[in-house]
Structures are given as C-alpha cells and as structure tokens.
Amino acid sequence: MSKATEQHPQEQENIQPEHHEGLEAPTPEHEEEQIGETEGPTAEDKGVSELDELKDKFLRLQAEFDNFRRRTSKERLELFKTANQELMVALIPVLDDLERAQAAMKDAQDVNAVREGVELIFAKFLGLLQQKGLKPMDAVGQPFDADIHEAITQIPAPNEDMKGKVIDQVEKGYYLNEKVVRFAKVVIGA
Fold first, then answer.
1. Fewer CB atoms inside 10 A, N or C side of the chain?
2. pLDDT for 102-155, tens place per residue?
3. Which residue segments constitute the domains of the chain, with CATH numbers given?
4. Is the distance from CB of 186 to CB of 139 less than 8 angstroms?
5. Which of 158, 90, 92 is nearest to 128 (CA)?
6. Which residue, among 182, 89, 173, 185, has the nearest Cα to 131 in the 3D structure?
C-alpha cells in the first residue's frame, strides 16, 4: 500500500470535509425562515389589510354622507326661499289690476262701473287661487266636525234638524290640495 492510503484509523475519523466561508449548509431553522418568506402574506397580514380597506371604505362613505347631508340642507334652504315664487309671480297681474282699480276709483263718477271692475278682479283672484289648489269649505248646514271646524259658540237650534250642525259661519275655512289650511270658525246649533 502506498503511504497516502495507509493512514491510521484514528486519523481517518478526524478528517472532516472542507468548509468554505459563506456556504453554510442550511439548518432546519433557516429552512423555516426561507419557506415563510416565499409563501407570501400570512393570514394575519391579510386580515389587517382587509381591515384597513374596510376602514378606508367606511371613512369615504361617512364623508360622502356628510357631503350629501350638507348639500340637501342647502337645497332645502334655497327651496324655502323660493317656494312661494310661483304663487307670487301669478299674483302680480291681480296686484296690477287692483292698482288700476284704485286709480280709477279716485276719478270715478259711476259706482256701478267701479263695482263691476272690483268684482272682475275678485273673480280673477279667486280663479288663480283655485288653480293653485285653494278651495273654500262649505260649512253651513253641515254636521259639526272638529277636524275641520272650530266652534265659536253654540246657540239654540231653530229646528230639530239643525241640532249638532253648523248654523252660521263667522270665518271661512280653506283646503289646500285636500289639506285643511284654515279651520272654519262656526256657530253650532244645540
């Protein structure tokens, strides 16, 4: 045998493989770290990102709702300011007619002509109000209804048929599109 191959058995056990710096063999701990890094985000990371997304959506939705509320309140204020505009514009011709009638009354000699002119203006005014939905109540002779009538007083009924019914109307009541806007002030038969 050659001298190189003849080594003592103890010396053979002491021979270790050569190690190069920076090339360590991976240990089980290092393997877990490498596996964890290549898997991607963990379930916990996903939950946190979903929570952040939901928080962001919530904040955006809340801001959007606040903007909506501000916008609608501003629109409401504008509507209240101009709600009567249509009615006022429709009443201007009646006002013009009343001014002309007032000027004509100063020099008028014929009372019947003035009366006819005022009646025409009144009819025009009443027609305009009815177009806008205002209707007068018919109270006299009707049974008393506390939902639409306001009793001023009671008097003895002239006959048995008029007991509990409206005998006289002190002030007319009005409906606006089927809703009572002014109660009729009435006298009831007892």
1. N
2. 888 888 788 888 888 889 999 999 999 898 889 988 888 888 888 888 888 888
3. 135-190 (2.30.22.10)
4. yes
5. 90
6. 89
Asked whether 134 and 174 are in contact (CB, 8 A), the reply is yes
Residue-by-residue DSSP string for 126-185: HHHHHHTTEEE---TTSBP-TTTEEEEEEE--SSGGGTTBEEEEEE--EEETTEEEEPEE
Amino acid 121 reads I
CA 132, 136, 142, 144 torsion-angle sign: positive
162 CB contacts (<8 Å, ≥6 apart)? 141, 189
Distances (CA, A) of 92 to 3, 87, 128, 172: 132, 9, 11, 24
SS3 content of the chain, % helix, strand, coil (to 5): 55, 15, 30
pTM exceeds 0.85 for this model: no
Cα–Cα distance between 88 and 128 in angstroms, integer?
A: 11
3-state secondary structure of 189: strand
Sheet containing 184-189: order of strands: 149-155, 184-189, 166-171
